[in-house]
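We modelled the chain as a single entity of 303 amino acids. Its sequence is:
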Amino acid sequence: MRSPRDKVIMTCAVTGNLTTPEQTPHLPITPEQIADACLGAADAGAAIVHIHVRDPLTGRPSMSLDHYVDVVGRIRSSNPELILNLTTGPGGRFVPSPDDPKVAAAGTTLMLPEKRVEHISALRPDICTLDLNTMNSGKEVVINTPSNVRRMAKVIADCGVKPEIELFDSGDIALMRDLLEDGTLQGPALCSFVMGVRYGFQPGPETALYARDLLPNDAEFTAIGIGKAAFTSVAQSYLAGGHVRIGLEDSVYLSRGRLATSNAEMVAKARRIVEDLGGTIATAAEARQIAGLPAKSQSSRAA
């Protein structure tokens, strides 16, 4: 059994891969908008920002290294203490051709594992995600085979970056344990349960407790809710002894029928939930210690 933590890490996922500009006019799209959203979330209480980038012209997901360089540079110049968590999720989607299922159809993004972590090698953020899910996703599939995960994990480890392990179902936790046992991953693990994606973990307190109890005892975790489960999952994760995440990647609504106008507004509400339940939001410096990240030096703070 785990009790709620004294200090809780708040992560803000500011734009994501699947939220569309058609769903909300407040979605950050350009590198400047994404960086500003991250800095605003930090001002509201987020210690970690989880970052995807987008094509500024279309608003669609992008893997452009130039966009990542732009976003990271803007954030680091303004707030070097803020913990940066870059995604490595894009590049694992497969769409089978209706005429020959072994042939990729339009929409397939499947690529070499090393290509998916190219921006991690270049930018060396504090954290990057590492997805362990192979699962149905809508009418498509996401493929993260153990061998490809190991190849990505090696690049991440060689860069000195902490992986945040993304877990979409209980089998992913079993794979994480194997990766810890064979040395592919180094503990204590930093991980997240993604709840609310169709065909994966379904949101609810039972899911958060079940998944938590499958983890190694020293693992740090966040139970993330998607869509209408976003804010209820903040409370459930905190009460289960975990950390919390919110942002326009996870939901576009602040409350029923009311669009969130910014990521900062969502962080402020999530912070109130945690504080009303008796918790305290960790500073970025405190979050670094909890997550096992190196502290920022005085020279880094002054840079």
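As a brief sanity check on the tokenised model: Residues 65 and 118 are 8 Å apart (CA to CA). DSSP finds eleven helices and 17 strands in the chain.
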